[in-house]
Amino acid sequence: MTRDDLFKINAGIVRDLVKGIAEFSPQAFILIISNPVNSTVPIAAEVLKAAGVFDPKRLFGVTTLDVVRAETFTQEFTRQKNPSATKIPVVGGHSGETIVPLFSKATPAFQIPSDKYDALVNRVQFGGDEVVKAKDGAGSATLSMAFAGFRFAESVIKASQGQTGIVEPTFVYLPGVAGGDELVKATGVEFFSTLVALGANGAEEAFNVLDGITDQEKKLLEACNKGLKGNIEKGIDFIKNPPPK
């Protein structure tokens, strides 16, 4: 199934679900994991705007799976028994070239041999395809997606209950989150996945982790932003110019 196929199926589902949320539970935290996230989150935002209940701090695109893959696929270099012990920012979007792992920003730091860098980036970006091929087209990355969804949802719940110091990567509407305007200027897009501090009311602050990235990462970011703009516009257009029924 292509991304276009996914869009045709999921765009309408997300639109209708969010209409219900807007009417019956407008203060809910909305965590969108339905692909293509780069488009379905803007769809949700437009629906909430139309209903007059859009709170950017409460709308999240779940991109945690990209981080889980980055942590796992680098274990041979980090030597960590627990992959999540290494924190690797993954920014941008949640599909293919819009996924940008910032290995240079990892803590603790580690080195990737130059001859393995491109393949590692590609594996983080297209890890889902690897699973589909392994299942011979009969399924996708359901288990890892469930784990990633749980990990992010648990963080949102803990933050909503008052736990502090929780920072997670997530795809948010930058102009509506503190610190987001700086990233809008740096990337040229209003929806972007970055590290976000979570609090009782949702997204408290978006952090700009782009300063000091490598030339390789800058090239990845350029490709990301081009693709991301089109994905975002496609989602917005789906609501503003709905397809005929």
Automatic annotation (TrEMBL):
Domain Lactate/malate dehydrogenase C-terminal: 63-238
Reactions that this protein is recorded to catalyse: (S)-malate + NAD(+) = oxaloacetate + NADH + H(+)
UniProt KW Transmembrane helix keyword: no
EC number: 1.1.1.37
Keywords for the protein's UniProt record, in alphabetical order: NAD, Oxidoreductase, Tricarboxylic acid cycle
Domain Lactate/malate dehydrogenase N-terminal span(s) in chain numbering: 1-61
Taxonomic superkingdom: Eukaryota
Subunit structure of this chain's protein: Homodimer.
Protein name: malate dehydrogenase
Organism of this sequence: Aspergillus uvarum CBS 121591
